[in-house]
């Protein structure tokens, strides 16, 4: 083999081993999303100006503008006259419309959402069991305990979502977590309907505690069973006949 062939082979191996480079725009999109979360901005709050974002993240004006265009396309931000970029609620409206939520939950939508959640939450079980520390699982206990301290259906639904969000966070995958959070309006709506018909928060707390116990015992089978049973529980509030029709449709 010639010296040039050896060099090309070595370069190819090195390139294959190196992770794919993230563009400056994609990196800035992630940084802005982190900023929105870290500052706990709510719908209607203004983002830093383009100049401020550029200075904060050492990015050019063109990069900032492209990143904001991406966030705008996803419905995360919108531009308002005399204000600039603000946090938008259009992504929540789009998600609600996507699943056709009006005054109730359609059986087909329930199956789609809970099916997605089952794929995610059961699927991450092995990773959590292999990698979660005792501190990680103690934090799940802490998040779970908050549902016993609230009153009202809305607060209980948000506490319920917070537990499952904390569970998904233990997968250590930012893309997965971001996509899961995009469905928050739909997931909390499902939780709200169930809690309105059976407002017993101690039941939810107990179920979550059993899930945590399975993780602490590093029991994959018990964890998968408990999560699946938990996610299927709400079917009784949608209507078994309609659920069967949706499955067969």
Q: How would the blueprint of this fold be written?
A:
Layout: H1 3-17, H2 24-38, H3 50-57, H4 61-73, E1 77-80, E2 84-87, H5 90-98, H6 107-123, H7 125-131, H8 134-145, H9 153-169, H10 174-182, H11 184-197, H12 201-216, H13 220-232, H14 235-238, H15 240-248
Antiparallel strand pairs: 1-2
Helix pairs in contact: 2-4, 3-4, 6-13, 6-15, 8-9, 8-12, 9-11, 12-13
Question: How is this structure best described in words?
Answer:
The protein folds into two domains: 3-88, Arc Repressor Mutant, subunit A (Orthogonal Bundle); 103-248, GntR ligand-binding domain-like (Four Helix Bundle (Hemerythrin (Met), subunit A)). The chain contains 15 helices and two strands. It has helices at residues 3-17, 24-38, 50-57, 61-73, 90-98, 107-123, 125-131, 134-145, 153-169, 174-182, 184-197, 201-216, 220-232, 235-238, 240-248, and strands spanning 77-80, 84-87. The chain has a two-stranded antiparallel ribbon with strand order 1-2. Strand 1 and strand 2 form a beta hairpin. The relative contact order is 0.09.
